[in-house]
Every structure is written in structure tokens, then in C-alpha cells.
Design a protein that fits this description.
Blueprint: E1 8-14, H1 21-37, E2 46-51, H2 58-68, E3 72-77, H3 83-94, E4 100-103, H4 115-123, E5 128-135, H5 141-156, E6 165-172, H6 173-179, H7 189-192, E7 200-206, H8 219-233, H9 236-265, H10 272-305, E8 312-316
Parallel strand pairs: 1-2, 1-4, 2-3, 5-7
Antiparallel strand pairs: 3-8, 4-6, 5-6
Helix pairs in contact: 9-10
């Protein structure tokens, strides 16, 4: 009996990507056409672009291509909600239409030629297939170094992640359905998806240079994503603050006995500079501790309000 081809949706969030979108659409159209002709996927498969509140002509390009190209679909969000929320909006739109969803960035730095390998692993029973970067030569030295440090930090804090994996992944429809059982507002998909527990596979790729334009993922956005990942999945930072407080308590006991012994010996306690430095040091540690606790409290505040993670203004699916 001949196997029925499954429906594949490619979900690509984009923000101010008018320079690279025409190239990405052309490449993805060719890729989907080849896969459909080979019988690997259903003719109902699509590339779904999610416009994350772009201020340039990104949405116009998506809408114009949708009119002439049946393989291109679009979702327009009413405002900029961030990369992770835009990904989720695309996945929610596609989950009732597709058997399999592959998420990737609109700049196509991820290697789309690896998608057939992902599909093979899916057909072998994997519900989730991670695209892992074997090389990051296309990144700057700073980005490579900071990414390496970040993944090691997350591992040290006990957060379950896949090393050198960003958001290039395949997920089956049932894995996506399970993902939407997680309702947190401070999204860190790279930490949530390994918690789903389904059978996983890995495909290795080399990061490619952007075909056009510049990355819109600024240093500030990377820091915010890192903080979301840490505060959403680890309580070790507050525990480290508690440990630091215990260290200071121990030091204060030692200093207390030192002062008593000095008094009994008749040795004058001098050194105002060391006292001032100690006060500044301890004061700084207290403020850092309050800041860490404040990050957690602030995120609890955002979660309990239970606001929508995104608002969809328009869908172009037919």
C-alpha cells in the first residue's frame, strides 16, 4: 500500500526583513516544489511567514507573493511581540493544517537542505528533530563566544537545553499540541520543548551567512532571551544569593571575634578605608541580590496577569 504524503508547514517569523524576503521566498518555493514533485510531502504543504509587527515592507512582500504563489502563506501580528511569541503564533496557526511543522528563521541561515534528513527521522518515529549547529563560522567572534558561554551557563544552572540548537527544529502535530499545554508568558522554547518528553533526533548543520540585510536580533534581545531562559527554568540564582548571604554572615562572626580579641589586647582598630570598602562591597551584593529577586517577582507579575501572548491582525492561508 502506498504511503500518503504528509502535510509539511515551514514557519518563519520575520521582523523588518524586506531585504531578504524575496530571496527566502524564492528558495523556499523551489524547495517545496522539489519535495512535492518527489512525493515526499503533500501538495498542501506551505511556507508560513509570520510578520512580527515589521515597520518596513515585509508584510506587503508576503501578501503580494501569497496572491501569485499558492505555496506562500502569511500571518500578520498587530504589533511586535518578539521572536519566540511570533514563532508560537505561526505554530498555532499551522498546527490544525499540518502533520509536521519545521520552524526556522526568515534569513535562511539555517540549512534547508537538512529538512529531508529531519523528515526521515520523523518517519522513523521521532516527534521532535533538532537542527544543531556544527559550525558557527558565519557568526562574529563575540557571538560565537557568548553563545558558547551561555549554553554552558544554562547547563550549570540545571536548565535542560540542546547545545548549539536555536529554533531550527521539526515537530510532529502531537508534539505541537502538547507544547500548547505550557501557558507561560515569558517564553523560552529552547527550554520548554526538551521537557515534552517525546522521542527526539538530531541533524547537524553549518550556519550560513545571511543572503541580504542585517540581523535584527540585537544584543539587547539576546540578553532578554537569556534572562527569560534562566528565570523560567532555574531557581539557582536566588539560592546563590542566599549562599552569598551566609558567607557574609560567617565573615561577620569572624570579624566580631577579631574585634573582641583586638580590644582585649589593647590594639586600636584602625583602617577606615577597609571599613568603607567593605560597606560598598556588601551594599553592592545586596543590590545585586535584590535585582535578581526582582527579576523573578517581575516575571511572576507578568504571568499572573495572563494577557494574550500575541494578537493576530490578519491571516493569508487560502
Amino acid at each position: 500500500m502506498k504511503k500518503t504524503p504528509f502535510i509539511l508547514y515551514l514557519v518563519l517569523p520575520c521582523y523588518n526583513e524586506e531585504a531578504v524576503l524575496p530571496i527566502s521566498i524564492e528558495r523556499l518555493t523551489l524547495f517545496l516544489q522539489q519535495q512535492i514533485l518527489s512525493g515526499s510531502i503533500s501538495p498542501e504543504s506551505r511556507a508560513l511567514f509570520v510578520n512580527d509587527g515589521s515597520t518596513d515592507k515585509s508584510w506587503d512582500i508576503i501578501a503580494d507573493n501569497h496572491q501569485t504563489n499558492p505555496l506562500i502563506c502569511g500571518v500578520n501580528l498587530s504589533g511586535n511581540v518578539g521572536h519566540q511569541n511570533a514563532l508560537l503564533a505561526g505554530m498555532e496557526t499551522a498546527k490544525d493544517l499540518a502533520d509536521v511543522i519545521v520552524t526556522l528563521d526568515a534569513d535562511l541561515q539555517d540549512d534547508i537542505t537538512k529538512i529531508p534528513e529531519m523528515v526521515e527521522l520523523y518517519e522513523q518515529g521521532c516527534d521532535i528533530v533538532y537542527g544543531v549547529k556544527k559550525e558557527r563560522k558565519a557568526d562574529s567572534f563575540f557571538k560565537r563566544t557568548s553563545a558558547r558561554f551561555y549554553y554552558r551557563l544554562m547547563d550549570g544552572l540545571g536548565v535542560k537545553t540542546v547545545y548549539n540548537h536555536a529554533d531550527f527544529r521539526l515537530m510532529s502535530s502531537r508534539a505541537v499540541e502538547q507544547l500548547f499545554q505550557y501557558q507561560e508568558r515569558n517564553l523560552y522554547l529552547r527550554g520548554i520543548i526538551p521537557l515534552l518528553g517525546y522521542k527526539t533526533g538530531t541533524v547537524y548543520e553549518e550556519l550560513r551567512p545571511r543572503a541580504a540585510g542585517e540581523s535584527k536580533y540585537t544584543f539587547r534581545k539576546m540578553i532578554n532571551l537569556a534572562i527569560n531562559g534562566i528565570t523560567s527554568f532555574s531557581i539557582k540564582p536566588p539560592r546563590l544569593v542566599t549562599g552569598l548571604g551566609l558567607v557574609f554572615l560567617l565573615l561577620s562572626v569572624i570579624i566580631f571575634f577579631y574585634v573582641i580579641i583586638s580590644r582585649l589586647r589593647g590594639v586600636a582598630v584602625s583602617g577606615w578605608s577597609s571599613l568603607i570598602l567593605s560597606l560598598w562591597f556588601i551594599g553592592g551584593c545586596i543590590l545585586i541580590g535584590l535585582g535578581i529577586i526582582g527579576e523573578y517577582v517581575g516575571r511572576i507579575y507578568l504571568e499572573v496577569k495572563n494577557r494574550p501572548r500575541y494578537n493576530i491582525e490578519k491571516k493569508l492561508l487560502d
